Amino acid sequence: MMTLSALQFFVFGALAIGCLQGAHARKWRNTGGTIILEEAWTTPDLVNQLGNTSAALGGTNAELKANLLDIHNQRLRFMDENNVDYMVLSCASPCIQGISDPAQAEDMAVTVNNILADSISNNTMRFGAFAALSMHNATNAALELKRTVQELGFLGGLVNDYQQSGPDNATLLYYDQTEYDVFWQMVSDLDVPIYFHPRGNIPQIKSPSIGHAPWLAGPAQEYAATLSNHILGLCTNGVFDRFPKAKIIVGHLGERIPSDLFRIDEQLKRQLPLGMPMKLNVTSYWQTNIWETTSGNFATDLLQFHIETIGLDRIMYSVDYPFVAIDEGEAWVQTLPNVLSKRQLETLTRGVAIQVLGLDR
After folding, report:
1. How far apart are alpha carbons 282 and 280 in whole angstroms?
2. What angle is formed at CA 86 by the lines to CA 115 and CA 190, rounded to 5 degrees?
3. Taking the CB of residue 239, how many other CB atoms lie within 10 A of it?
4. pLDDT: which is higher, 11 or 360
5. Alpha-carbon distance 254 to 257, whole Å?
6. Averaged confidence pLDDT in the chain
7. Residues 6+ apart with CB under 8 A from 232
8. Interior CA angle at 145 toward 144 and 147, to 5°?
9. Which helix (H) or strand (E) holds 194?
C-alpha cells in the first residue's frame, strides 16, 4: 500500500491542478444528445457480488449480469438507439465498499480502474469513467483518485456509500470524519466530483431495520434511507465548510433529501447550540457543493419541485442502466418538452453535466 507523510501529500496535491491545466481538451461525441452518468459496469471477479439483485421488469438476472459486463455491444447499441452521446461508467455496487480487508480492497480498486480504462480506451468519444476507490485509508484513496484522473483520464470517483471494514465486516467507515480531510483536499485540488451511490446494507443493519419487511431492501427504501444519512453527515460534520470547492453528486433525485429540505433545515437549527460543526444549512450546500441526477427516478412533478427548490443548474439527467432501461429514460425525456423549454431541457440532459464533469475543458 502507498503511504505519504502529510507534507508530501499536500505538496503532491497542490501540483494536481497545474498538471490538469496542461492537459489537452477532452474529445467526446458532442452532437446534442444526452449525457448519462450513473451507469453501472462490473468485472467477472465482482459480478457475483450482486447476488440476487432484481433485474428490471421483463428481464432476468442473467441478462442483468450480461449487461453489466458488456460495454461495446448491447450497451452501445442502446445508446445509439436512444440519443445518448456520452456515458460515464462506474463499478456496480457495492464494488470496493464491499471488501473489508484494506489491502485486498486497495488492490482490487487499482485492478478495476485499470480494467475499465483499458476497456474504454478504444472509444473514449462515447465513454468516460468514475474511479472505484478503497476508502479504508484516506490518503491512499486520494492518491488513487489522483492517479485515475491524471493518468487514466477519469472524470472523478464513485463511492458506494460507507466502506465496510473489520474482521466481522461490521466496522463502517464514513467519509464525513476529519481523518478524510486529506481525501477532500485532493478532490478539491483536482476539481472533480465524487458520486455517492447507495449499497445494500451489511446484515447487522439490514436485519433489524427491514427484517420485518424484506421487500423494502434495495432501491424502494433501503438505499435512500442509508445513503441520505451519509450525505447529511457530510453537511452536518462540516465537510463543505472546510472544503468549499468539493463537489459531490447524488442520484435518484437526491435520495429524497431535496424533497424534505424545509424540515431538515428547521430541525437542525436545534443542533447548533450543541456543537454541530455545520456553519450554514443543508439547503445552502445544495447550492454550492451538491448536485443530483434523475437516475431511475423519472417523476416529472418531482423534477419540477426540485427545479423550484434547488434549481435546474443542480440537476443532471441519468438513467441507472442496466437496472433501468435506457429507452425508458429516453421515453421520459421525450415527454419533458411539455413542462420544460428547449433551453431548460438541454441544461438538464447535457449542459450541467458538461460543466460538472469538465467536458468543456
Report:
1. 7
2. 65
3. 26
4. 360
5. 6
6. 93
7. 257, 264, 282
8. 60
9. strand 193-197
Asked if 35 and 315 touch (Cβ cutoff 8 Å), the reply is no
For residue 74, pLDDT over 80 is answered with: yes
pLDDT at 17 over 50: no
Three-class SS of residue 214? helix
Q: What pLDDT does residue 7 have?
A: 41
Whether the CB-CB separation of 93 and 74 falls below 8 Å is answered with no
**What pLDDT is stored for residue 50 in this prediction?**
77
Task: Find where cell 445509439 sits.
Answer: 80
Q: Is 276 exposed, middle or buried (0-12, 13-18, 19+ CB in 10 A)?
A: middle
pLDDT in tens, 205-215: 998 999 999 99
Are 164 and 180 in contact by the 8 Å Cβ rule? The answer is: no
* pTM as predicted: 0.93
Cell 433485474 belongs to: 55
Phi, then psi, of 139 in degrees rounded to 5? -65, -45
Tell me the one-letter amino acid at 48: N
Beta bridge mates, 131: 157
C-alpha cell of residue 31: 452532437
- Looking at the annotation, which residues are catalytic? 320
3-state secondary structure at position 86: strand
Q: How far apart are the first and last CA of the chain?
A: 32
Q: How far apart are CA 316 and CA 295, in angstroms?
A: 9
The DSSP line for 310-328 is T-GGGEE----TTTS-HHH
H/E element, 128:
strand 127-129
**CA nearest neighbour of 88 among 39, 125, 122:** 39
Residue 182 contacts residue 140 (beta carbons within 8 Å): no
Q: Pick the more confident residue, 13 or 275.
A: 275
Res 24: pLDDT: 62
Going by C-alpha positions, the residue among 92, 176, 198, 105 that lies closest to residue 144 is 105
Q: Are 150 and 115 in contact (CB under 8 A)?
A: no
Dihedral in degrees, nearest 10, Cα atoms 330, 333, 335, 341: -150
